[in-house]
Amino acid sequence: MSDPRRRRALVASGALFLVGPVLPLALAATERLLGRTGSYPTPEPLPEDPFVEVVVPAYLEESTVGATVEVLTNALEKSAVRHLVHVVASDEGTAASAAAAGKVTRTGRGGKPAAVNAAVEQSTADVVVLTDANCRIEPPDWPVQMLRELQDTSLLSANKTEVGSDDVLFWRLESWLKLNASSDGGTLGVVGEFLAMRRRDYRPVPPATTSDDLWLAMDFDARGLRVSVSPTIVTCEDPAPRPEQWERRVRIAYGQLVMALPRLRALSRTPAGRNYLAHKMYRLTVGAAAFWTALAALVSVRPRVLVPVVGVPVGAAVAQYRGLLPVTTPVDPVAAVVALQAIPVAAASRIVRRSLRRDGKAVAGWRKVPR
């Protein structure tokens, strides 16, 4: 390839990568001009004194679930909300540590969808909240905020934060894009750490679903029910060790790709679905491919002796994010942005490997690090 063609490839791929963060906003502006923001039916009003059940599916969370139950219970009691905190524990240690919960159900290791399905099937609550055993929900009066915001939406999620995480730039961008999408045609960018809905609207998640939160959002949207991210409620958790964080990111990307790619046509038919394609899917496919193409083009137009000037920092950023390079620098948040571009590559590789497996067996859950 000649130098002019390499430079054009560099400019084009660089532009495709940089347009990713603003593409959902451009799409939303275009849909507003075209009057395609969509309309959703007003949800059925909640009872005056709704009964709220908080479901906490937990596995190997012996050191975290007890404190989580206490914090959840205190928030619900101080908000004067009728409630039940229900822990669905997949191991004896977690079940014992959750003894202070209003209800503890001991199950086998069947995966999160099975645990949630069983809990909601037994529930008699008006509102069901799904959360994790290792996160905190803020502000303290979140039950009041949640009930108020559920008056206008059918599935309510929250913004996620990680205390002291290198992914700070990523989370800020996510929050900004999700809140903008919620104010327009809804969003599918929910997080499993907080999902609130009317119990009657819940439909069982298929077993072995990798991304159960995305499945729920897509299911609600496909039924014409509004999905939103709260402007006031956030979930907080401590960042996982880097190797565990890498595996978690790859698993999430894997789940999104295997669920969304076969449903591209259906997603393109709703405002929230189109926003998801412009936001999440673009970043996982076109955006990541453009980044690596731009990197390759940049290396090809430079003298070979300078190739390490580009390759070494990128390789170090990925190695650091994976926990293979135990160093800390002031530019770690920027390095994390670079490293995140390797996540879709790892997820795509996992898809290919699993498609070539001959046994075709589905695995319940994923490799879990005890907490």
Automatic annotation (TrEMBL):
Pfam families: Glycos_transf_2. Gene3D superfamilies: Spore Coat Polysaccharide Biosynthesis Protein SpsA, Chain A. One of its GO terms (cellular component) is plasma membrane. One of its GO terms (molecular function) is glycosyltransferase activity. Pathway: Carotenoid biosynthesis; staphyloxanthin biosynthesis; staphyloxanthin from farnesyl diphosphate: step 4/5. Residues 54-201 form the Glycosyltransferase 2-like domain. The keyword Cell membrane applies. Keywords: Cell membrane, Glycosyltransferase, Membrane, Transferase. It is found in: Cell membrane. Belongs to the glycosyltransferase 2 family. CrtQ subfamily. Catalyzes the glycosylation of 4,4'-diaponeurosporenoate, i.e. the esterification of glucose at the C1'' position with the carboxyl group of 4,4'-diaponeurosporenic acid, to form glycosyl-4,4'-diaponeurosporenoate. This is a step in the biosynthesis of staphyloxanthin, an orange pigment present in most staphylococci strains. This is 4,4'-diaponeurosporenoate glycosyltransferase. It comes from Geodermatophilus dictyosporus.
